[in-house]
Amino acid sequence: MTTQTLDLTRLDPWIRQYVPEFNGPLKAEKFAGGQSNPTFKLTAGEQQYVLRRKPPGTLLASAHAVDREFRVISALQNTDVPVPRTIALCEDESIIGSMFYIMEFLDGRVFWDPALPELSNDERTAVYDEMNKVLAAMHSVDLEAVGLADYGKPGNYFERQVGRWTKQYRASETETIPAMEQLLEWLPANMPPDDGSVALVHGDYRLDNVMFHPTEPRIIAVLDWELSTLGNPIADLAYQVMAWQLPQGGGINGMAGVDRTPLGIPSDEDYIKRYCERTGRGDIEHWNFYVVFCFFRLAAILQGVKKRALDGNASSEDAASRGDLVTPLAELGVGFIAG
């Protein structure tokens, strides 16, 4: 069994037992894209569902926690953060070879190019303002009220994250990358003091991890919660802004060198200002550290993708080429050290 297929003979009876209103023969189709947890569209008669699973095989510790995804999406059902309806979680790995969960299938738009060439200027402005609004809503969730007060560990979030991703990177390291070594040395030595901010952090909040309404500039689902935890909300904001600094092409959908103003896409400064207005936050100190951290973490994540490709259990068929981005991302991070 690979990450590209499902054993429907074992899955079918499980779904009939645990998924309401299930009818008709079961079919599965893997969604394109995604480098982590393989995701499938399930069709059974008139019903459609989404299945998200852990990749089979040996994995890095604490990675691919689909049970945490299921928990957080379930907790957000009645909040201002749009998420799919969760249906069932299966922790029995004997069914399809790894843990998985079922959620509703939503019909909407996912944009892959951050320049949004298919939209008008007004639509581009509205799309990014909606992303800003939903990000602020996510960081304003009452953690006690939704049962997520214990969803992360206490203490300095960035200190924990640098430690975690250093371990993950070392565990998946395939060669010595000078720029990564420089980041691994610089980040702990330049750690900002903990400002005490604690919020629900998505961990991978970017354009192609949200689904928009088929015709309106309105997010109907925030997807891919695998990296979510409790922590400093500036990490999500810095990650989204960092994504705009990435180059275009070569397997990366960035906007480096693009003049955003004529496109109706906000500048970094305007986007940050609007977020701060929505969340009641003042000026953000140590901004460069947060951006450098985001480059480092993304490089570490893609090193894990590369290792899974070499081990034969990567989610995406283009995983090997994604691994080639580790060095350029680390070098971009080093470039932001000087400001």
Count of structural domains: 2
Q: Tell me the name of the CATH class of the largest domain.
A: Alpha Beta
* Strand coverage percent: 5-15%
Q: Give, in spatial order, the strands making up the sheet with the most strands.
A: 1-2-3-5-4
Q: What distance separates the N and C termini?
A: 47 Å
- Determine the fraction of residues in helical runs and give it as a percent range: 40-55%
Query: Cα-atom Rg, whole angstroms?
Result: 20 Å
Number of helices: 11
Order of helices and strands: HEEEHEEHHHHEEEEHEEHHHH
Fill in the keyword field for this structure.
about 350 residues; alpha+beta; Phosphorylase Kinase, domain 1; Aminoglycoside 3'-phosphotransferase, Chain: A, domain 2; five-stranded antiparallel β-sheet; two-stranded antiparallel ribbon; 11 helices; 11 strands; about 40% helix
